[in-house]
């Protein structure tokens, strides 16, 4: 495995934080509409897990899929950040050509198979991606990120059963941020430690702190090795926290200031920055310069691309509903007499 | 040319498509070792193995979702749901995912799945086993909905559906699996769009789909004994509906009736007649009529069930009304 550049990881997380902050601002300017769910606070999970998935990318891209809190997963998986922002703006240049929006970022060219607005829906889709991987024998795996709340859907149980039974190469990553919208996990879920639920399905599972990216990477590494070996699924649970409300229409009033402040003490960006500075790999000045460079890249390049991109044409309203040029041998009108 | 039963025609399509493309798989409850509730996959488990003929647990939503996920990664799953009633559990993944993934991804992802499922009333199975639900699927952008009424179409349309890159809802009927019909010996594809004129006539157009086509044909025979020439149209596809074939027929006959086993409100007939009003209002000599199921959950009791569901006699009598003969 190649050596992982910790400074690059730090820069990525700084970029992800700024990307979300900037999309928040764009939302306030009414340039972004719909629901907007931001990932700030949870960066170490997607960054760390996908970094490890990609570390042995001998086979090219693996599949990744998630729910509606999907911008950062998409970018880390390889979707161009410009296109993700353009999608938030609803532009034709967006990842989903303006048809999907914040909750439905897709980039199949890097095997990022989408964000989905229905809680729990990605579980079976991920298992299906894994089924295809197993069938096609190219050494790929599928990675599914979902919140703790999603584990209460029927799809969770049904999918875990089949994924285990059929030994599918799928890594489930539970981002346990303690809340499902405004409901704290203690009020929605009988078993608080999510990884314990997997015992019922004979799927190996473990729980880890999710704010230190190096801890995340270490846990991910052995889980991925298990999945890649053909031994079947693995379930990783990370304890993490989102700084903002569930979405833009939620200020997060159900959480105390103290609780939020306490989690912010364990900020994934600060943890890694501090470690690098203490190790002499990074200076305070370099860190500041990094933050500034990221900010200007997002403001000048990413946002500008989104702002200047064209809107989809109204004449194309029905485009993408069905395939553009279906094969006339099996689609298209029965000519003349049927029967 | 061989006489095949509807189920044999479907089985042959499975067999040919599985042989043609290693990415084709079949999934569903009881379809493997047991060979399928309606024998449609009989013997294929032995031939293609458990990795391609997949027996699933009773988890409709998630196994359908698994099929959809696999299709996004290049597989071509044929998903059998034992009864359309159980497809309700999978509606989320069908309507919210399969139908929308191409659109939500701006055309960058697709779900080439076929969901096959029988609907309809068959011998007092009562409300929770008699749904038709055609309207749910035909009202959903992003799906194709086909309803073959003959073994030939069942065979040729299933083959086309497997090779189609859109999600195809393939509506069968529990009472039709033993229906026999001619199917050519050579490989044949039937289009997924376009209605068929299955009997020509000049006096009235009878429009049906799936099982109700057969009521229309029986009614047409009876009308013929009275010197009335009915034209019968098999819709074949509920999404899209072939309005052109309907228009041409009505411009010839000037009278029309739509027969369906579904309930009327927000149904297939409502949609067909709305199209007729838009396309050929001035060609009509009489008001269009729907023959349809009663707007009730299908009752268990045999006479009540018969009363709830129309048949060939109802089509015949309604046709006479449209013609002003009663
Ligand atoms: C099937 C379904 N039910 C309910 C909702 C509404 N809803 C959206 S997000 C959410 C909470 C999910 O919480 P969790 O899975 O923990 O993810 P998090 O938002 O914490 O990342 C709910 C209930 C939905 N989108 N889909």
Automatic annotation (TrEMBL), chain A:
GO terms for biological process: pyruvate decarboxylation to acetyl-CoA. The lineage of its organism: Bacteria, Pseudomonadati, Pseudomonadota, Gammaproteobacteria, Chromatiales. It catalyses: N(6)-[(R)-lipoyl]-L-lysyl-[protein] + pyruvate + H(+) = N(6)-[(R)-S(8)-acetyldihydrolipoyl]-L-lysyl-[protein] + CO2. The keyword Oxidoreductase applies. It is an enzyme of class 1 (oxidoreductase). Heterodimer of an alpha and a beta chain. Its cofactor is thiamine diphosphate. Pfam families: E1_dh. Its EC number is 1.2.4.1. The pyruvate dehydrogenase complex catalyzes the overall conversion of pyruvate to acetyl-CoA and CO(2). GO terms for molecular function: pyruvate dehydrogenase (acetyl-transferring) activity. Residues 12-314 form the Dehydrogenase E1 component domain. InterPro entries: DH_E1 (IPR001017), PDH_E1_Alpha_Subunit (IPR050642), Pyrv_DH_E1_asu_subgrp-y (IPR017597), THDP-binding (IPR029061). This is Pyruvate dehydrogenase E1 component subunit alpha. The gene is pdhA. Keywords: Oxidoreductase, Pyruvate, Thiamine pyrophosphate.
Automatic annotation (TrEMBL), chain B:
Keywords: Oxidoreductase, Pyruvate, Thiamine pyrophosphate. Its cofactor is thiamine diphosphate. The keyword Hydrolase does not apply. It comes from the Bacteria. The keyword Coiled coil does not apply. GO terms for molecular function: oxidoreductase activity. Signal peptide: none annotated. Residues 4-179 form the Transketolase-like pyrimidine-binding domain. Pfam families: Transket_pyr (PF02779), Transketolase_C (PF02780). The branched-chain alpha-keto dehydrogenase complex catalyzes the overall conversion of alpha-keto acids to acyl-CoA and CO(2). It contains multiple copies of three enzymatic components: branched-chain alpha-keto acid decarboxylase (E1), lipoamide acyltransferase (E2) and lipoamide dehydrogenase (E3). This is 2-oxoisovalerate dehydrogenase subunit beta. It comes from Nitrosococcus oceani C-27. The lineage of its organism: Bacteria, Pseudomonadati, Pseudomonadota, Gammaproteobacteria, Chromatiales.
